[in-house]
Amino acid sequence: MIREITAHELDPESFIGEKVEDIRRTVGEGWAINALSGGVDSSTVTMLGHRALGERLRTVFVENGLMRAGEAEQVTGFFRALGVTVEVVDARAEFFAALKGITDPEAKREAITQTFYREVFGRLVRESGAKHLLQGTILTDVDETVAGIKRQHNVFEQLGIDPQAAFGYRILEPLIQLRKDGVRKLGQALGLPGELFQRIPFPGPALAARVIGEATPERIETVRQATQVVERMLSGYGTFQYLAILHEDRVTGMRDGRRDFGRQIEVRCWDSVDARTATPTRVPFEILEQLAQEIVGAVPGIVSVTYNIASKPPSTIEAV
Amino acid sequence: MIREITAHELDPESFIGEKVEDIRRTVGEGWAINALSGGVDSSTVTMLGHRALGERLRTVFVENGLMRAGEAEQVTGFFRALGVTVEVVDARAEFFAALKGITDPEAKREAITQTFYREVFGRLVRESGAKHLLQGTILTDVDETVAGIKRQHNVFEQLGIDPQAAFGYRILEPLIQLRKDGVRKLGQALGLPGELFQRIPFPGPALAARVIGEATPERIETVRQATQVVERMLSGYGTFQYLAILHEDRVTGMRDGRRDFGRQIEVRCWDSVDARTATPTRVPFEILEQLAQEIVGAVPGIVSVTYNIASKPPSTIEAV
Predict the structure, then answer these.
(1) Fewer Cβ atoms within 10 A, N terminus or C terminus of chain B?
(2) Minimal C-alpha gap between B260 and chain A (Å)
(3) What ipTM was reported for this prediction?
(4) What pTM value is reported for the model?
(5) B262 interaction partners in chain A (CB closer than 8 Å)
């Protein structure tokens, strides 16, 4: 049982001091490595790790082809400004090869997990000589994995898998007692810029979790373009999360007066404190209509756009 | 080229007089038959036909298993009150047998068309001895068929098929110069009760057009239940059309703290004058949230509900 530290009770400075000590004690004279996705959790753990280890923490950004538009450049730029060097590793071909033909959500997650740990990151870790892996797992990930709602890709220990035996390295999870709001408070204290520590959550399987059905390069590109419109138009509302989902179902549309059998994008925008429960944000209809118009205008193959109106539960935040 | 008569220029009394004459002249001493679906178009053409032919028009309601809850009882009750006897024919088994395994929207329409014309209604017509079939085709049906957007099931002549040769009877289409608003005006003049002539449009393939993928008895029952909630909650807004669509895509949900991989209902509610263009109705968010809550609470297997925010074009009013 992990003891939760709420955002309210979190004292960032003493928490940082304690975790920096833990990390230093565990890593000793060795090296550690961590993967930065650009999300709040991995950004915060990167800063915490650099506070503890300095140059002895090697931070990599794995370009898996499933990221949002411009994400690698943006994230490495933010960290460069903070004095942290992030190495970008291009592994797009490996991820799309692993995802080929897979439509089941669990199988997609599993393919991404296996490619990430066993192939790409596992290889980097082995080559680097680092024996310690720093990871931004938070309490909500653990809850959802234990409840069987979603298999998060970063909670091996919770699933009874020994990462030392399975992958040859040890995982440190300094954020595991926190939820999202606590991580934001901590990230702020660690000096992350507002744009980063206030970033909306982004799922581990990235845009592969935003397509229903197979995650091909073309389908990922479609949802990437829709995501760009959604993030641009909904970023100003102070909501918890907003996302675009590419559906597999085909719906009837019309273009130039002719039938155009196309696809649908579903937009979700959530009000939530900690992701355990969530309600759809009451985005003004003018904005929703403009959003739909931009998506059908800008994203090839899309003829229909919907907005989620169900709450969590019984919905979940992501669809896949 | 069919000459359009707009609702504005329509003079119901002289139109009725002219069409009653046409129908009497064409049918002569014989019998005519028509199928009543309960929609505005077929209800109006039923009244027009009875005005012209009285008891020499036989009106049947084909129970195809794809109708909304209580539809047969409601429709026959309305007409009984108007002095028109409607015969209900149970053909559910024939329709579901024809739809088995079919997922393509065009193939579904075709299966329903063929079952309706060649099997059920064709048999009724042949057994009845009637040589004339009265049908409520309107101009929008013709437009959409010609444009290739949707193959309407009731416009054989427009598709270059001779119904006399193909099916052994002749089709009369007295409403073919009108659009929906004109038909409503005409229905009112023919004495149809408000509940009927103001009914929202309902597609020819009925609830089979409201499921993406195979139209099994179970899936039709699911969308029937969702439709009942949607019609009850959105009937008061004076909108053009509102509908529920059962998607085939599976989405993640949670019930009792556990993962529940389920289905999604999409709700569409349209503002439109004549169905050629349409925009989503700005239904208050409290209503949309309540709607979603009732659907996930009442309809088995549904974990997510969306609301359409795209306009026609490029969307169409129905999804299938």
Answers:
(1) N
(2) 7
(3) 0.77
(4) 0.79
(5) 314
